[in-house]
Write a structure and sequence with these properties.
With 588 residues, the chain is of the alpha/beta class. 45% of the residues lie in helices and 18% in strands. It comes from Geosporobacter subterraneus DSM 17957.
Length: 588
Amino acid sequence: MFLEKLDDYTVVDIMGTDLVTVNEDTSFREAIGEMLRGNTDEVLILDRKGHIMGMVCFTDFIKGMKDIPGKNSFEDKIIKYAIKNVVCIESRAKALDARNLMQQKGIGRLPVLEDNRLIGVIRVKDILDKVYLKVDEMRETFRYILDNLHEAVCVVDKEGTVVLWCGKAEKLYGVKSEEIVGRKLEEFFPTGLLMKVLQEKKPIENVLHSPRKGSYVNISAIPLFINGELVGGVSTDRDITEVRNLSLELEAAKEKLDYLQMEVNKISEDKYSFGKNLGKSCIIRDRMNRAMQVAATNSSVLITGESGTGKEVFARSIHQVSGRKGSFVAINCSAIPENLFESEMFGYEGGAFTGALNKGKIGKIELANKGTLFLDEIGDMPLHMQVKLLRVLQERQVFRVGGEKAIDIDIRIISATHRDLKSMIKEGSFREDLFYRLNVVSIELPSLKDRKEDIPMFVKHFMEEFCRENNLSIPRITPEVLQVLMCYSWPGNIRELKNIVEHLVVFSKEGEIKMESLPEHLTVPEERQQELDVVYDLQENIRRIEIDSIRRAMAAAEGNKAQAAKLLNIPRSTLYYKIKFYDLVEYL
């Protein structure tokens, strides 16, 4: 009898040893790959000592994939989706005890432990493989277990007549148990693997099969013997349609990402390579040579210069030629509210504070790991953050807000400012020890008025860039216009030049930029402009000064109203009001 035969075995006699194990840090995506490569439908999670921490079965993967809100969640740790309290059995136990435990718990697999270490797994098919099951006796005993398995189980006698067809098989193939039990399997599945197993008397394992268009199953089938005599066969079919489709989608997405990354790298190399867009004047060449000399090292660089001189472009160029494999991550210290600075820089754990995302958030410093962290307007960093940044630079570790685990980082710091940091040190608004950490190599970028020979190159570059982005033909610029641009003092530097070039293209006529295309403040000689500015009407003077100040601040802030308001030292709402009051349509 079945129960008597089962009582003769220990769990070691019937367990399977085809295990797939991962550690708790394995991602959801990696665990799927391990499961597919191992051709099992469960993944066991072990700690460093080999103890079981959890188990994820095939349906858990499917449920996890349905619950995932975005692609980034495939990088979640697999432990998140695991069954933590895994029911196990000792290796010295009897096979009958394993059968009773599986029936009692309603489970289809049972890990086997020896000295608290995993040595195997008992699955229903392992029991069927070792022991002849007399169908009439086992039907009631195992019906509950079989109907709740993730596999579709089919048992036939030696003639190929179906004696058991579980609930999962009904769902997978759309054939009811009452329709197929007692009839020949080949009537429903002429090419079924079980028929081949009965003929050849050899097991067939992990065969991919598509029973109908768009669906895929993984099938294993084994013959059943008693005293060397064939008495039947059993097959287990796992629906892997969603996993296979996901695998194909992931592979296609990876190919697209690899291609896009390659294209982005090409664009970055072209846009931010030294000598391409930074200029050819002697003074800027000297700065580029200095930058290229330090780029290959890990030394911190402090870039100084007026607003609009291209400090971020210069920083990106240093990163581009540095050979660092990570990303270039830029932080504008003047644009982050003080109460959000720490979470933006360091990230936070889920639920660290009110309003925090449940899954937490990675900080900018972590994003720059293996790459470059660019701290723009470093002079505007709050003092309490300066202390924490200094600690990061010293220890090369970062702690997320609300977290206790130190995260090792490898970053290169490039900072920039238009402010006099040495004066700020004397005033007590900037830390001297941080200054010396950031100012290992100092590069001062010249104003545009000191490198006017680069103006034609910038005009050509900005015209091509603007026309390409707006699908416009590149107009011709007359020598008279270019002469005006060369003679202007450029208080807003390269950023102001870029804005004016866009203005010239917009107001060009018949494919040509003429004198009438120029903004009014460029067409009036400076001496005459000063004369016109000398008026005695106080309200008019206030109007002119406010309009001019707003335009300069918006140019310096690259259109960012919050930053422009900060430069003007007025509330942002006041800036919005004045823009509307003076009808400055270019900023509405």
